[in-house]
Amino acid sequence: MLQNELFDNVIRDFNAGYWELHNDPDKEEWSQKFYESIGYVPEELDPSIDYFLENLIHQEDVEVFRDNFLNYKKNSVNFKQHIKILTKKGAYKLFRCATNDELPVNIKSEINLLFFFEIKLEPEHHTIAKDNFYYKETAQMTATGSWYVDFQKRKSYWDFETRRILEYPDDYIPSLKDSANYYAEDCQQQAADCFFNCAMAGTPFNTEIKMVTANKRVFWVRAIGKPVYNENKEIIGIRGVFQDIDDIKRKELRLQKSMDIIASQNSRLFNFAHIVSHNLRSHTSNLSLLVQLIEDIDNPEEKIELVNEVKQISYSLNTTIEHLNEIVAIHTNKDQEKKNIRFQDCLNVVLNGIGQMIALSKTKIEVDFKELEEIAYIPAYMESILLNLITNSIKYKHVDRDPIIQIKSYTEENNKYLKITDNGRGIDMKLFKDKVFGMYKTFHYNKDAVGIGLFLTKNQIESLNGTISVESEVDQGTTFIIEF
Predict the structure, then answer these.
(1) How far is it, in rounded angstroms, from Cα 228 to Cα 220?
(2) PAC domain location, by residue (predicted)?
């Protein structure tokens, strides 16, 4: 269907007037149907937004329509809205105005258009009462609160549903000065960026963010905001809504976590298959070749040399099989009974075993288990995890300073964490980000580096539905964060 046919169908089927919007306000045009819908002829009106706001639109609708209109022109933010427009006979007609993308069909217009669909207006007193009822009902059913920040008065305003969602009393007065405290600590910068860009550049926002209630409960919301303009088209505030999406968001995060675990398990299976098919096959092929050579050689001295090579290959083969057995054992033993173990007790076991290594390297270990002293876990796994991460920090210490290892346990949003930080050589995350926990992956040139420790540690943690992440900077150090 041709573009003009689509356009004509919209006008005919929906009986709609429209405005053509251009970058130059003087070039804006109102359609003949728009004039007819309010009883005027083109010569009687000035087709400009300023004239419309001052003379035609109902005062109750001015602010919201002005904000929507300017956001549409400046930021291409589509909208639809009900407004009342004054007719030539002195009565108001109700219209639903909508931008191009809000139409039920795509008219593929090359210019921005604003359509006006006439709606039969009910008696005003009945409409207002019913609108208020539907507004409250909708807000409560969708857990959506409204808010407004007034830059001129330096005040914030919340509706009834906002106070309910944030667990504040009905007479609570929101504080603009302390507004950062309404957001989770790790989301305060995100909130500040959204508000600053909206206030200074007029950039609307639609984001997911964590907020904090009066009772210190952290929850997820979808926050939507847009600038408020005055008659001089200056930004004088921000108006918006937020919806409680905590249940949905947490289910989404749990699903994502499950998908990550599945992806990780697939990766482990791939590693396992690779080792079986490549490493073991390589060892066995070399053994077969050497055995054939030994059979074909008569010189005893040459045979002895080849036998020594057989020993070396046999040792490598045995080591590879042991690593594979360790991986299988982790996932076989994950159903072992968990016990309440103290981090300090596990650490003491590890430190007693590597005391000489710590002393020779002059390693300093700083511990903070005050916030979370114990956890239900498999003791052998915890000791193995601490051993691998601590010995790695010592092995890969910085050449210019003695190792300092900080170990801290803590809780955050009912989740339990262990963080281990060192001041060692660090890892180039740009090069090795996706390989840190891979099997037989090494990132330094130590002769004794095998590349199995972190792989086994990750397997142990994930076998109990936990996660491990790494942050590192070359020559600064490395931090491992374990979420149990």
Answers:
(1) 25
(2) 205-257
Residue 9's SS3 state is: helix
Q: Is 298 exposed, middle or buried (CB count within 10 Å of its CB: 0-12, 13-18, 19+)?
A: exposed
Are 390 and 429 within 8 A, CB to CB? no
The answer to whether 316 and 279 have CB atoms below 8 angstroms apart is no
Q: Is residue 72 part of a domain?
A: yes
What would the pLDDT profile of 226-278 be if each residue is shown by its tens digit?
998 888 888 899 999 988 898 888 888 888 877 877 776 666 666 566 555 55
Q: Is 23 exposed, middle or buried (0-12, 13-18, 19+ CB in 10 A)?
A: exposed
pLDDT digits (tens, 9 = 90+) for 43-64: 999 999 999 999 999 998 898 8
The tokens describing 315, both together, are 């040792």
Bridge partners (DSSP) of residue 82 are 96
As for how many domains the chain has, the answer is: 4
Contact present, 45 and 145 (Cβ < 8 Å): no
Q: Domain range holding 191?
A: 141-244
Question: Is the CB of residue 203 less than 8 Å from the CB of residue 75?
Answer: yes
Same domain membership, residue 450 and residue 359: yes
User: Tokens representing 64?
Assistant: 């919201």
**CA atoms lying within 13 Å on the CB side of residue 199:** 14
The 3-state DSSP class for residue 416 equals: strand
Distance CA 465, CA 335 (A): 12
Entry pTM: 0.48
